[in-house]
C-alpha cells in the first residue's frame, strides 16, 4: 500500500492533463494519508464531458460515515474489492473515478531485513496519473462539504519490480504474498477511466510494465510531518525555605 507521494506543481498538472488548477487551495509538497491533495475527475457541473481538478482529503470518506475523521484507513483500496467493499462499492458503481497526479511515490523495501523506503518516478519523465475513487460527504449538522479520494492498488506478486516492495509474510509462498502496486492510467486512457462504463474502467485495472518504473532507495525518510510540541511553561523558581 502506498502511504506517501509527492504531487506535481500546478503547471505540470495543466500541461499533462490539459486542465487548469485555478480556484483551488494549495496542497502540501508531500502528501500522507488524511492530508489534502489534488485529484482530477469528470466535472460534476458540466453537461458535456469535461475534467476538473479538486483538492480533497487523501482517505475516502464513505457515505455512511458519522464524521469526516475515520477510525479506519481508506487511503488505499484493493481494486479486487471495489464492487463489494462497503466504503467503495457505491463510488465505483456510480463511476466516481479520478486521476491522482503524482511526481513520485514511495514504497517500503524489506530485502535487507529492515525497512528501506524507495522512491519511484516514471521512466519517461512525465508525472504519474494514478487510478483512484472520489466521494463527496456532507456533514448533516453543519452542512460542510468534504471532498476525499482513495488510491487504487492491484496484486503485484508477479511483477518483477513491485513484488520486491513491502514486508514479506514468511508463512506464505512467493506467489501468495499479495504484494500491491499502484495503477497508472496512461494519457490516452484518461477519458476512458473518467467517463467510461464500469466494464470499460475495469479493463484499465492492470499492472504497468516494469520498464515504466524508475525506482531507487529514497534519500528522504517517508515519515509524516509531526506537529510541533507547544512550548513548556518554565517552573517558577523556588523561594528559600519553602518546600
From TrEMBL:
Keywords: Covalent protein-DNA linkage, DNA damage, DNA-binding, Hydrolase, Lyase, Protease. Residues 231-243 have a biased composition (Pro residues). Transmembrane segments: none annotated. It comes from the Bacteria. Gene3D superfamilies: SOS response associated peptidase-like (3.90.1680.10). It is an enzyme of class 3 (hydrolase). Signal peptide: none annotated. Residues 216-243 are annotated as: Disordered. It holds the Pfam family SRAP. Its EC number is 3.4.-.-. Belongs to the SOS response-associated peptidase family. PANTHER family: ABASIC SITE PROCESSING PROTEIN HMCES, DC12-RELATED. This is Abasic site processing protein. It comes from Variovorax humicola. The lineage of its organism: Bacteria, Pseudomonadati, Pseudomonadota, Betaproteobacteria, Burkholderiales.
Amino acid at each position: 500500500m502506498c502511504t506517501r507521494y509527492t504531487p506535481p506543481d500546478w503547471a505540470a498538472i495543466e500541461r499533462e492533463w490539459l486542465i487548469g488548477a485555478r480556484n483551488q487551495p494549495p496542497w502540501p509538497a508531500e502528501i500522507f494519508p488524511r492530508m489534502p491533495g489534488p485529484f482530477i475527475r469528470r466535472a460534476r457541473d458540466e453537461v458535456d464531458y469535461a475534467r476538473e481538478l479538486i483538492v480533497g482529503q487523501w482517505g475516502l470518506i464513505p457515505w455512511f460515515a458519522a464524521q469526516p475523521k475515520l477510525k479506519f484507513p481508506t487511503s488505499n483500496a484493493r481494486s479486487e474489492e471495489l464492487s463489494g467493499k462497503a466504503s467503495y462499492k457505491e463510488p465505483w458503481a456510480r463511476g466516481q473515478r479520478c486521476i491522482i497526479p503524482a511526481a513520485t511515490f514511495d514504497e517500503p523495501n524489506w530485502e535487507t531485513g529492515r525497512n528501506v523506503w524507495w522512491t519511484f518516478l516514471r521512466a519517461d519523465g512525465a508525472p504519474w496519473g494514478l487510478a483512484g475513487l472520489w466521494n463527496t460527504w456532507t456533514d448533516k449538522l453543519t452542512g460542510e462539504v468534504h471532498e476525499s479520494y482513495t488510491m487504487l492498488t492491484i496484486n503485484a506478486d508477479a511483477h518483477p519490480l513491485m513484488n520486491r516492495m513491502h514486508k514479506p509474510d514468511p508463512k506464505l509462498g512467493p506467489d501468495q504474498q499479495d504484494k500491491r502496486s499502484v495503477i497508472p492510467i496512461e494519457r490516452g486512457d484518461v477519458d476512458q477511466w473518467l467517463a467510461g462504463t464500469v466494464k470499460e474502467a475495469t479493463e484499465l485495472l492492470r499492472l504497468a510494465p516494469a520498464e515504466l518504473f524508475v525506482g531507487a532507495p529514497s534519500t528522504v525518510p517517508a515519515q509524516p510531518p509531526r506537529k510541533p510540541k507547544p512550548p513548556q511553561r518554565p517552573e517558577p523558581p523556588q523561594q528559600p525555605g519553602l518546600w
